[in-house]
Structures are given as structure tokens and as C-alpha cells.
């Protein structure tokens, strides 16, 4: 195809010359013919005449020859583009509206793609990253993903032949690091000696770990720093090797620095790396790394040349450790091989991505519909132009091509604008949701606009341009339409098309507004607290376990901290919060299935969320106690085991009534119910809500770490500082972390839902705007068409008001059908969403009503303006225009 | 025009073949190509200008022939067409196919009942 392309380019650059050459060549032929005739004895004048006759239509031949040469296409493209630019310049308002609305929509799509790319598909920035795989154990019949112990890792490493360099890592360890002064919380990673080598990384300073350094538990206290940490904390000191750090109160010496741009394998950037043999420093639940039940490691490796994910998966399936046979809850039973891509978002984040994609896609669709509608509205104006061009000899294809060129041009311009917008949108979403986690620890996501996204967006904008342009183009160039240029016939064709388009926009607007309203309301309610008042509650976490405290010492510390905080003037009430876990609880129900007195009833099991709490917990949270009492100082080790249950617990366990004084068994221990409390929300929306059971923090002799919940007077930040100080006065060595106010914590836990909500709201606002624009231009076009009729009506004495009504009624009829179908779509969307996010309440009637009224009001306003204008025109003017 | 011989219509696609063949004999301008075809066919095939020039430019666009400006016998600037390597291959292919086709058609037409 090369010569062909070359000849097009030649034409583009030297079009006139090529045209001249063709003319000269044809002239030569004619002259030769004349010469031949003259030589044959014909008089010159007659010879010239005969030659011309013989040659036929010179102009047509010229055109045909040029077409054959490939000129016509290239030339037409240039001409079309030039003409399109001229058309656009003639009505800049239309073009600007098109480019801006389409640009914003494409920006939303580009933002979604960029975020999805970063979260789902992006490979690490290390050599040959596409061969990296993670071997992930599965639990609970494959529904949950898990981690492995060091012996399991060693087993896989020795046995695998399809994956090479299998490395183990605990990628996000909480480390409190002191260099010179107080310890600071950082994110670290514990990695096997071959980790950096497997990734193909080289140290910028010093070296990585040797195999020897990662072979004996708790012996080699060596650390590798991340580039950023080395640069920020040590000013890129060249003599960094050999410096001492204290990590969770254990001394380490630096042996090297990782390369720039490598931030570990988690979205929480690792600042410091330790060998896996030192794991207990970062994970105090294990005292020695090679315990079989210390399952905390992830495994990463590279597919060998020739191996595929499938062959690796098959091999891993046959290589499961023999003790993985058990089927108990939370134990590893299988393993999958997964490429190392993106950040492996959780379900809630996936739901948010789906929301983002749906909103952006819908926005783009509506935008296309809107633009097609706008083009149709302009059709009447264009139809005379097109029929003139058609009668001057433009072919139908040529007309279509020209219209399509116009819309393609708009498409490309909006693509460029969209990419620009997406830079801003992505940055905004990143700052709002992705720069730090819910307690303010830094996160790192790579939301750079990538080349594949750019290419995709460019193709998309071109396609959208062609798509929205082709419908009116086909309609406009329809021979019959152009030929008769019959305005009335034409307007009928365009108006029924326009109706559909406006209905579609209205329906999407209602659906988006309802979903946006529902999400906004639900997140607001959630942050404001459901059955609680978190507005003046703050939380901090103390972690004596990280520095190796035993329960006795830790509990003394906790009691001390509690007393100090209770003594603070800012404190109104406080409580402790321990662990929280999902457990199966057995319940004796004396009434269930009973037929009479004396029946022993039956035992049933209930899956509940069991949480350890201290005294005054519900008072601190502002949660109403429905029956009985809270835990007191008397509920401790040795006293009667007790439990407080939630309202929903009572409803599922004892449907026939009675709760106080009943006993339930949690982890094999019988506990008496002493209180019933209102249901508290779960922080994660995607998990099916469970009934709650609360047990006393101090009835567990093994307590070490705790979170402290404090209801305070005054502003959060100074209070948090005061709380932290009080904790440190009790023991300066114990790490104090996760200082956060409850509203912020709740907001943070809904991060992804709120991100989805932001996009849906943005799309909703834009779609309403588009709807208004669409209706406005459709009514304007309709009014223009009926100017004559309106003029006659006015001349015959109609009141302007009745004319306005006539026009508005037409627009509103379409709108109402759209709104009605929008309500149905919204109801379906809410249903789908509530299946994914359990905490989402049903949308109430007022939401649907509000969305409908809002849209109807905006629509009516958009109709009234052009209708008024038409009605206020002098009848004579209206008639004269025809 | 001498009306001595019956003029034949060219079947579809054969014009390209004739042009390629003529040009393969040596670079020629459009006028000379038409004359040469007339002469070689014993005046049976007259190529009309209306199809000659579009065909020439089409073949050039496809890279089967190449054009240069040269000087004609009567000392005028004229466009001369020469066959390209690609054109030579195409000519060989098309010639074979044409011969197979004519033999096959002749066989059918010669068949006796």
C-alpha cells in the first residue's frame, strides 16, 4: 500500500502541481491527435474540432483521471476539513457547546480508565513486569484469599518448576522507626533475600540482603531503605551503609538503598525493608518465623520462559502442602496463580469502579444523544445549504463525508479537551480519596495518564464524533429530503428522532440524580452516625505488642492510660475497644419448636460480629441501650461471663421474645445476656450486615493492644494531641498510632463509595445541563418551524400566553415520558446497587419525586425561554419571514 | 479515421494488461501507448482516451508503472510511463491467466455436440 499512500501525500503537498501535470498530459494527447489529422490532410481548424469531439468531455476525464490518481480523496479530505472549520466558525456557539460537553464527558471516561488502569491492570515499574505472578492461597471454598507460613513458602519454592525466584514478603508491616529521637510510624516490608533480585532491581547504594542474612531466625538485624526515605530522612547521605535504626525497639543497621521509583508491592509505600527472618519484629503474633501457624506471607515469582499462567496454575494445584487438606474456616485449602497487576482492589472498590464506569459511560451516551439532537435541530438550517450543494453537483457520498468530517473534527477536539480535563479530574479524585488512608497515613497510587489510555481515548473520541455525526448525516443526505427540500416533511423526520433522544437524556438524568441523591444521603447519614453520635468522638490506638510487651505489662499500661485520659478536662467519657471477629454463636432457644412447658427447646447457630469493648462504650458512642446495663468495672476476669447483644441479634435469635438473662455460647464459653443495644452500622458497606454481640474487654486475660474511644469537648485536633501525650506519659516507648476523629474514620472507610458518588453526582449535574440544552434547542427549532403558524395565530388574536403553552406542552410531553422511564431505570439501578452495597438504604419516594420535579422544572425553564421569544414577536414579522 | 477493420470492445480488465505489456516493451507516453496498441492489434483494438488516462493513473497509483517527464518525438514535453518491478510480476501473472482463460474458453466454444 506504500505507493498509494505516497501518492496521496504527494497530492496533499503538491496538489496543484499534480493537477497541472494531468492537464498538460491530456493537452499533449489532443495536440498529437490534431497533428495526426493535419498530417492526414485535414485543415487545421477542422482538425482541432475533430480532435476535441473525439476526446469527449475533457472536464469529466480530468476529474476521473484525478480520482484514479488518488487525488480526489486526499483533496476532498483537505477541502472537507477546511470547509468544516469554516462551518464551525460560522456557528461557534454550537461547536463550543459540542466540544465542551463532549470534552467533559470524555474527560470523565478518561478519568475512569486511568483509575481503573492503575487499580486493575498496571504492571509494576520493574524489568519484564508482565512475567511477575503472585501465588495466593485460597480459603473457605475459594471465597477468601489468604497468606502462607514460612514453611509453606519453602515448600512451594523447592517444588515449583514453572515459576522461578519465588520470594516471600509481608508487604505492609507497621514499623515504628527511630533514628535519632522519638519513633515515627512507617510502612515497611519484610522480604526474603531473593526478593529484590527476583524483581530485577539493583541497589543505588550498598547492597540488598544476602541469603546468609535470611537463614537464621531473629539473628541478622539488617535493613534496606527505600530511595525516598533515604533522600528525605537522611538527605541522600552517601555514608548511609552502617547507620543504625531502631525498628519497633530493635536495633538494625542499614546495608543498602532500593532504587528510585520502587515503592514496594502495596499501595502503602514501603519505606524500609527487613529480611523475613526478622518477621517477629514487624508481626509480634509470631515469635519465630518458621512456625507453621504463622501465616502472614505473600509469595511472588516470575513465570519461567515457556511457562504460562495455566501451566503454573496446574503445577501449583498439584503442589499444595499436605496439611492444607482440612476444611475448617480460615484455613488455606487451595492456591491460585495471579499476575501482579494493579493494586488488587477489594469488593467495595470494585463496586466504586463499576459506578464510575457506568456514570461515565452513561454521560458519554447522553452527550452523544444530545449532540445528535442538536445536529438534528440545526438540520433545517443546513437543509437548504445541502440542497444547494447537491444541485451544484455534490454527490451524496460527498455530502455525508463532509458532515462526518465536521463531527469527527468536533470529536477530535473534544478528545483533546477531555484528556486535559481528565488530568484535572484524576488529580482531584486522587487528592480527595487516594493520597492517604483513613487515619492519614500516606498512600501511593500511580494515576499518571498512560499511553494506552491516551490511545483509547483518541480512538473513542473519533468514534464518538463519527457516531453522533453519522445519524443526522444519513438523514440529511437522504436523497428525497435534499431533493424536495420540503421543510415540513423534513421537520417531521427530524422531530421524531429528536424526541427519542430527549427522552433518553431525561431518563438518564433521572436515574443519575436518584442514585447520586441516594449515595449522598446514605454516606451523609453514615458519617453522621446511625444509632450513634460520632461527631465528638475520637479514636487512638496503642500498640504495646509491637515492642514485645506481655499481657500483664500491657494491661498495667492500658489501665494507666485509661486513668490518665479520664482525668483530662477534655474527656467526657471513654471506653476501650479490643478485637472484632466474625464467629458462629450457639443459642439456646427454649421456645423455638416447643409444644409445651417442660420442653427443652432447641439450639441454633447464628453468625455474628463479636466485639470486645470496655466500660461506658455505648455511652461514649451515643448509642441507646434498649434493655439492661452496660459493662462495668465488675465485669472482669473471674466474674460471671456476660454479653450485650444487638437488637437484630435478639430478633434473629429469639423471635418469640425474651433476651435478658438468656445464655449464648461464644467460642465455647457460656455468657449471660445483660443488655440489648440498638444496631450499629458496619464500616464496610459491601459486607452483609451481621447481628452484633459485645463481650467485656477485661474478661480476656490475653489483652495487649487496644483502641481508645473518647467522647470529648472541643476541637478534634488539639484533643488528639492531648490524648497522645497522655498515652506517652504512661509509657513513652509504646507506639501510639491512628489518631483520628470518628467522622473522619467513617468518611475514610467509605472512600471508594464516596468516589463513585462524586462521579455519579458530576455526571448527574452534567446530564441535567445537557438535557436543558437539548430541550432548549429542540424547542427553538420547533418554534422556528412553526413561526408562520404562530404568526397567523397571533394575527388572528391568540393570546401570547396560549402560544407559549402550545410550545411548552410539546416539549414537556417528551420530557414526561423520559422522566417516567427514568424512574423505572433508577429503581432498577438502586436494586443492583443495593445488592452490592448492603448498607445502602432503599431509595424513598421523595428521592424519585425530587429528581422528577427537578428535571421537569429545568426542562420547563428550557422550553419557556424560546417559546416566550416566539410569542412576543410581532405577527407581521413572523409572517414576513416565510 | 480508417474504418478498414472491425473494432473490438475490450473485456473488463484487459486494458490494464495491454498497457502493462505495451509499457514493458519500452517507456512510452499516453498517445504512443494508444497508437502502439492499435498497431499491435492490427487496428482491431482502439483504446479510447476516456479510459486510457484514468487507467494509466490508476496503474501508477498502484505502483505498477512509473511516470517521468521526457521529450516526445516531436520535441514536446510528455509524460512517459515505464514498467516497475512490481508491474513486471503482475504482467507475467496476468499473461499466464489470460492464456489459460482463452484456451479454456476456446475449448468450450470448440466443443462439438
Overview of this protein structure:
The complex is a heterodimer of chains A (882) and B (113). Chain A is α+β, with helices and mostly antiparallel strands and 882 residues long. Chain A folds into four domains: 68 residues, no CATH class; 211 residues, no CATH class; 311 residues, no CATH class; 191 residues, no CATH class. Chain A contains 26 helices and 21 strands. In chain A, the strands form two sheets. A six-stranded mixed beta barrel of chain A has the order 3-4-9-6-8-7. About 3% of the residues of chain A have low confidence. Chain B is of the alpha+beta class and 113 residues long. Chain B has one domain: Arc Repressor Mutant, subunit A, CATH 1.10.10. Helix content of chain B is 54%, strand content 14%. Chain B has a three-stranded antiparallel beta sheet. Chain B is globular and about 60 Å long. The chains are: A alpha+beta (882), B alpha+beta (113). Chains A and B meet through helix 1 and helix 3 of A and helix 2, helix 3 and strand 3 of B.
Q: For the residues shown, what is the average pLDDT of chain A?
A: 84
- How widely separated are the two ends of chain B? 42 Å
> What is the highest CATH level, the class of chain B?
Mainly Alpha
Calculate the mean pLDDT score of chain B and round it: 84
Cross-sheet strand order for the largest sheet of chain A:
3-4-9-6-8-7
Fraction in beta strands of chain B: 5-15%
Ends of chain A: how far apart? Answer: 53 Å
Greatest interface and its residue counts? A-B, 26 and 23 residues
Q: Treating each run of at least 4 consecutive H or I residues as one helix, how many helices of chain B?
A: 4
- The total strand number of chain B stands at 3
Strand content of chain A: 15-25%
CATH topology tier name of chain B = Arc Repressor Mutant, subunit A
Oligomer: heterodimer
Shape field of chain A: globular
Q: Please state the structural category of chain B.
A: alpha+beta
Whole-angstrom Rg of chain B: 16 Å
Q: Tally of extended strands of chain A?
A: 21
Helix-strand pattern of chain B, N to C? HEHHEEH
Strand order of the largest sheet of chain B: 1-3-2
Any idea what the radius of gyration of chain A is? 37 Å
Amino acid at each position: 500500500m506504500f505507493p498509494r499512500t505516497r501518492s496521496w501525500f504527494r497530492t496533499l503537498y503538491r496538489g496543484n502541481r499534480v493537477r497541472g501535470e494531468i492537464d498538460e498530459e491530456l493537452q499533449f494527447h489532443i495536440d498529437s491527435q490534431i497533428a495526426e489529422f493535419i498530417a492526414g490532410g485535414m485543415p487545421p481548424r477542422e482538425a482541432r474540432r475533430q480532435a476535441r469531439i473525439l476526446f469527449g468531455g475533457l472536464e469529466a476525464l480530468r476529474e476521473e483521471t484525478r480520482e484514479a490518481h488518488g487525488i480526489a480523496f486526499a483533496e476532498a479530505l483537505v477541502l472537507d476539513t477546511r470547509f468544516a472549520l469554516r462551518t464551525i466558525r460560522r456557528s461557534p456557539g454550537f461547536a463550543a457547546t459540542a466540544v465542551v460537553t463532549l470534552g467533559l464527558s470524555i474527560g470523565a471516561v478518561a478519568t475512569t480508565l486511568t483509575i481503573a488502569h492503575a487499580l486493575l491492570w498496571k504492571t509494576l515499574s520493574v524489568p519484564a513486569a508482565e512475567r511477575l505472578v503472585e501465588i495466593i492461597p485460597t480459603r473457605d471454598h475459594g471465597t477468601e484469599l489468604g497468606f502462607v507460613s514460612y514453611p509453606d513458602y519453602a515448600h512451594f519454592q523447592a517444588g515449583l518448576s514453572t515459576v522461578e525466584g519465588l520470594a516471600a514478603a509481608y508487604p505492609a508491616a507497621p514499623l515504628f522507626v527511630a533514628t535519632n529521637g522519638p519513633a515515627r510510624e512507617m510502612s515497611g516490608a519484610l522480604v526474603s533475600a531473593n526478593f529484590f533480585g527476583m524483581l530485577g532491581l539493583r541497589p543505588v547504594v550498598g547492597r540488598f540482603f544476602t541469603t546468609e542474612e535470611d537463614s537464621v531466625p531473629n539473628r541478622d538485624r539488617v535493613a534496606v531503605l527505600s530511595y525516598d526515605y533515604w533522600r528525605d530522612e537522611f538527605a541522600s547521605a552517601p555514608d548511609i551503609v552502617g547507620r543504625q535504626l531502631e525498628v519497633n525497639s530493635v536495633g538494625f543497621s542499614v546495608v543498602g538503598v532500593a532504587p528510585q521509583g520502587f515503592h514496594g508491592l502495596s499501595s502503602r509505600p514501603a519505606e524500609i525493608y527487613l529480611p523475613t527472618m526478622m518477621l517477629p519484629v514487624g508481626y509480634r503474633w509470631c515469635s519465630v518465623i518458621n512456625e507453621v501457624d504463622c501465616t502472614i506471607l505473600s509469595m511472588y515469582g516470575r513465570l519461567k520462559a515457556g511457562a504460562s499462567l495455566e501451566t503454573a496454575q496446574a503445577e501449583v494445584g498439584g503442589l499444595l502442602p499436605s496439611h492444607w487438606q482440612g476444611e475448617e474456616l480460615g484455613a488455606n485449602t487451595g492456591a491460585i496463580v495471579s499476575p501482579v497487576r494493579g493494586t488488587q482492589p477489594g469488593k467495595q472498590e470494585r463496586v466504586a469502579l463499576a459506578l464510575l464506569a457506568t456514570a461515565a459511560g452513561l454521560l458519554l451516551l447522553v452527550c452523544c444523544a444530545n449532540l445528535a439532537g442538536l445536529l438534528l435541530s440545526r438540520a433545517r438550517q443546513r437543509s437548504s445549504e445541502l440542497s444547494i450543494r447537491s444541485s451544484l453537483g455534490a454527490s451524496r457520498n460527498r455530502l455525508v463525508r463532509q458532515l462526518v468530517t465536521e463531527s469527527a473534527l468536533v470529536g477530535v477536539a473534544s478528545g483533546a479537551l477531555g484528556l486535559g480535563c481528565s488530568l484535572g479530574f484524576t488529580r482531584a479524585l486522587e487528592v480527595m480519596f487516594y493520597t492517604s488512608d483513613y487515619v492519614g497515613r500516606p498512600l501511593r497510587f500511580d494515576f499518571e495518564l498512560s499511553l494506552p489510555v491516551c490511545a483509547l481515548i483518541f480512538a473513542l473520541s473519533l468514534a464518538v464524533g463519527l457516531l453522533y455525526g453519522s445519524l443526522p448525516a444519513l438523514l440529511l443526505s437522504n436523497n428525497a429530503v435534499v431533493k424536495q427540500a420540503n421543510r415540513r416533511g423534513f421537520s417531521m423526520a427530524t422531530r421524531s428522532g429528536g424526541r427519542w433522544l430527549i427522552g433518553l437524556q431525561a431518563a438518564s438524568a433521572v436515574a443519575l440524580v436518584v442514585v447520586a441523591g441516594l449515595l449522598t444521603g446514605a454516606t451523609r447519614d453514615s458519617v453522621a452516625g446511625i444509632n450513634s453520635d460520632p461527631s465528638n468522638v475520637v479514636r487512638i490506638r496503642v500498640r504495646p505488642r509491637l515492642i514485645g510487651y506481655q499481657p500483664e505489662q500491657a494491661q498495667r499500661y492500658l489501665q494507666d492510660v485509661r486513668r490518665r485520659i479520664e482525668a483530662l478536662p477534655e474527656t467526657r467519657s471513654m471506653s476501650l475497644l479490643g478485637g472484632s471477629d466474625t464467629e458462629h454463636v450457639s443459642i439456646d432457644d427454649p421456645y423455638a419448636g416447643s409444644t409445651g412447658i417442660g420442653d427443652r427447646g432447641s439450639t441454633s447457630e447464628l453468625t455474628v460480629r463479636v466485639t470486645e469493648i470496655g466500660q461506658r462504650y455505648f455511652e461514649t458512642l451515643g448509642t441507646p441501650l434498649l434493655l439492661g446495663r452496660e459493662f462495668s468495672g465488675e465485669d472482669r476476669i473471674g466474674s460471671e461471663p456476660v454479653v450485650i447483644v444487638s437488637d437484630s441479634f435478639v430478633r434473629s435469635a429469639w423471635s418469640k421474645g425474651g433476651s435478658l438473662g438468656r445464655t449464648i455460647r461464644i467460642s465455647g464459653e457460656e455468657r449471660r445476656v445483660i443488655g440489648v443495644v440498638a444496631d450499629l452500622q458496619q464500616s464496610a458497606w459491601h459486607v452483609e450486615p451481621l447481628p452484633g454481640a459485645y463481650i467485656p474487654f477485661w474478661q480476656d486475660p490475653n489483652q495487649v493492644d487496644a483502641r481508645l474511644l473518647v467522647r470529648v469537648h472541643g476541637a478534634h485536633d488539639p484533643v488528639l494531641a492531648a490524648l497522645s501525650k497522655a498515652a506517652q506519659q504512661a509509657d513513652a516507648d509504646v507506639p501510639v498510632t491512628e489518631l483520628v476523629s470518628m467522622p473522619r474514620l467513617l468518611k475514610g472507610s467509605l472512600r471508594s463509595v464516596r468516589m463513585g458518588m462524586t462521579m455519579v453526582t458530576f455526571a448527574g449535574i452534567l446530564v441535567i445541563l445537557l438535557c436543558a440544552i437539548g430541550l432548549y434547542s429542540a424547542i427553538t427549532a420547533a418554534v422556528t418551524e412553526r413561526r408562520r403558524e404562530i404568526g397567523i395565530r397571533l394575527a388572528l388574536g391568540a393570546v401570547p400566553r396560549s402560544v407559549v403553552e402550545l410550545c411548552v406542552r410539546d416539549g414537556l410531553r417528551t420530557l414526561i415520558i423520559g422522566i417516567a422511564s427514568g424512574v423505572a431505570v433508577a429503581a432498577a439501578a438502586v436494586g443492583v446497587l443495593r445488592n452490592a452495597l448492603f448498607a445502602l438504604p432503599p431509595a424513598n419516594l421523595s428521592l424519585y419525586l425530587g429528581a422528577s420535579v427537578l428535571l421537569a422544572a429545568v426542562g420547563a425553564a428550557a422550553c419557556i425561554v424560546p417559546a416566550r421569544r416566539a410569542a412576543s414577536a410581532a405577527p407581521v414579522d413572523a409572517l414576513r419571514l416565510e | 479515421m480508417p474504418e478498414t477493420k472491425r473494432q473490438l470492445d475490450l473485456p473488463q480488465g484487459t486494458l490494464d494488461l495491454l498497457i502493462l505489456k505495451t509499457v514493458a516493451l519500452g517507456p512510452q507516453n499516453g498517445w504512443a501507448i494508444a497508437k502502439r496498441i492499435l498497431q499491435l492489434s492490427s487496428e482491431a483494438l482502439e483504446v479510447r482516451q476516456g479510459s486510457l488516462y484514468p487507467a494509466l493513473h490508476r496503474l501508477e497509483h498502484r505502483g505498477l508503472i512509473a511516470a517521468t517527464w521526457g521529450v516526445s518525438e516531436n520535441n514536446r514535453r510528455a509524460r512517459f510511463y515505464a514498467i516497475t518491478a512490481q508491474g513486471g510480476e503482475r504482467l507475467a501473472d496476468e499473461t499466464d491467466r489470460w492464456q489459460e482463460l482463452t484456451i479454456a474458453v476456446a475449448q468450450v466454444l470448440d466443443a462439438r455436440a
